[in-house]
């Protein structure tokens, strides 16, 4: 891995130069045509695009309960056990996020409050091929169930038995064998077969990401997912073999994944760089991971931990490991990160699979302003107000004053129509 000892100012400048990759106008045009065609022609368009892009002719998009049950029964028992342990841990974590609203009656004659309402229906996009991760099914679906979503609809182009089993374990209501931009369009607008949803979750390729951007406003979306990232903060006490392994755990995801180590120890930097090369040579996904390490990854050496944290907060990584003595003592210095892993035994893959906190996290620096997926993403909030006649009389003059300051005479008259004569 490249090792840099540039000044903090120069490294911060390099971080700020990062810009989001612009979507290819040709892709935008193609996706727009797909969305408009699905909106106009429904199932027929979805069927045509599925044959064109996936090479599959489907009479019925919906996957039967029998096929789902068979997948659950047929998966390896160890896989089933692991999925169920993960489910229980995800539930135990996310149930603490459940909101119940509130009622405020502190002022005489006034009741104010907030009602928490689950979204009626949510769509979950699950990629096919090598990106079909059953763990992501659990991470998407379980918070939705805890929020009280009435209908969880999953679309996936080529479901494995493990993905179908995970959907059953997580409580997904309906599964449709669909993928690509046409699946996003079907969820956003509805077809004769696929129900329209209120919000769409899940990652996908550039066509899926572009489709999610284009239907936003018609439906809500979770985020536009970028390549995976891991940032590790460590000092001389860290174990190079462990640090290298954790960096590669993310590098193997994607050629564009960003593995980053920031340290105050030049010795550790050199040892980790050497260890990464050794481990790459025996990694099954060496080609992908090597390109990630060489093109996207780096090791930064800075003189003190204050600068180390300043740089990492600017990077705002999806995953952040703190490999320092007494790591919890540094948690207050973390301002921007999707999920934080404290100490040498909290390796990032724990968060991917069984620890319980969500692994669907903000990427590409968006941890500066966004959060991991949680129960709160599957709800909406409605406010309510009630006033007695006496309470209105007490505050009416303030309403009419402000209404007339803003030039809204009708607002003022609506209040005065209720005043006692």
What does this structure look like?
The chain is of the alpha/beta class and 421 residues long. It has three domains: 159 residues, 3-Layer(aba) Sandwich (Rossmann fold), CATH 3.40.50; 180 residues, Nitrogenase molybdenum iron protein domain (Rossmann fold, 3-Layer(aba) Sandwich), CATH 3.40.50.1980; 29 residues, no CATH class. The protein is built from 16 helices and 14 strands. Strands 1-11-10-9-12-13 form a six-stranded parallel sheet, sandwiched between helices. Helix 7 links the parallel strand 5 and strand 6. The longest helix is centred in the first third of the chain and has 18 residues. It starts with a strand and ends in a 5-residue tail after the last helix. The mean pLDDT is 95.
Name its key features.
alpha/beta, Rossmann fold, 16 helices, 14 strands, 45% helix, zinc ion binding
What's the layout of helices and strands?
Blueprint: E1 3-4, H1 8-16, H2 25-41, H3 43-54, H4 65-74, H5 77-94, E2 102-104, E3 110-118, E4 121-125, H6 134-147, E5 151-155, H7 161-170, E6 174-176, H8 180-189, E7 199-201, H9 206-215, E8 220-221, E9 229-234, H10 240-251, E10 258-263, H11 266-280, H12 286-296, E11 298-301, H13 305-315, E12 319-323, E13 339-342, H14 348-353, E14 379-387, H15 389-405, H16 409-416
Parallel strand pairs: 1-11, 4-5, 4-7, 5-6, 7-8, 9-10, 9-12, 10-11, 12-13
Antiparallel strand pairs: 2-3, 3-14
Helix pairs in contact: 1-13, 2-3, 2-8, 2-9, 3-8, 4-7, 5-6, 5-7, 6-7, 8-9, 10-11, 15-16
């Amino acid at each position: 891995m490249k090792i840099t000892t540039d000044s903090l100012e120069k490294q911060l400048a390099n971080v700020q130069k990062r810009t989001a990759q612009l979507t290819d106008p040709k892709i935008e045009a193609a996706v727009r045509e797909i969305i408009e065609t699905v909106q106009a022609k429904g199932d027929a368009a979805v069927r045509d695009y599925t044959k064109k892009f996936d090479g599959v002719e489907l009479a019925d998009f919906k996957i039967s309960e029998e096929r789902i049950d068979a997948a659950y029964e047929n998966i390896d028992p160890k896989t089933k056990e692991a999925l169920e342990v993960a489910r229980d841990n995800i539930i135990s974590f996310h149930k603490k996020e459940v909101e119940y609203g509130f009622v405020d009656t502190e002022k005489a004659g006034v009741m104010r409050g907030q009602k928490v309402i689950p979204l009626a229906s949510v769509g979950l996009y699950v990629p096919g091929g090598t990106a079909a991760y059953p763990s992501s099914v659990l991470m998407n679906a379980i918070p939705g169930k805890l929020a009280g979503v009435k209908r969880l609809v999953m679309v996936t182009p080529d479901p494995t038995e493990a993905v179908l089993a995970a959907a059953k374990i997580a409580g997904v209501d309906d599964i449709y064998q669909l993928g690509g931009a046409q699946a996003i369009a079907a969820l956003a607008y509805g077809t004769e077969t696929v129900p329209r949803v209120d919000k769409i979750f899940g990652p996908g390729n550039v066509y899926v990401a572009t489709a999610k951007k284009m239907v936003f406003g018609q439906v809500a979306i979770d985020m536009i997912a970028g390549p995976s990232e891991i940032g590790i903060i460590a000092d001389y006490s860290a174990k190079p073999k462990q640090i290298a392994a954790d960096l590669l755990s993310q590098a193997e995801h994607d050629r564009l994944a960003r593995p980053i180590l920031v340290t105050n120890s030049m010795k550790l930097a050199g040892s980790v760089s050497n260890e990464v090369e050794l481990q790459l040579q025996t990694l099954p996904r060496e080609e992908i991971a090597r390109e990630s390490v060489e093109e996207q990854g780096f090791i930064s050496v800075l003189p003190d931990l204050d600068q180390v944290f300043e740089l990492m907060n600017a990077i705002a990584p999806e995953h952040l490991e703190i490999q320092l003595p007494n790591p919890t003592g540094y948690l207050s210095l973390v301002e921007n990160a999707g999920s934080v892993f404290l100490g040498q035994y909290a390796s990032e893959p724990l968060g991917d699979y069984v620890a319980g906190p969500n692994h669907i996290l903000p990427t590409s620096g968006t941890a500066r302003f966004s959060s991991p997926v949680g129960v709160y993403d599957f709800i909406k909030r409605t406010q309510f107000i009630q006033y007695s006649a006496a309470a209105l009389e007490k505050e009416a003059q303030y309403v009419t004053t402000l209404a007339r300051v803003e030039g809204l005479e009708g607002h003022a008259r609506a209040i005065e129509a209720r005043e006692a004569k």
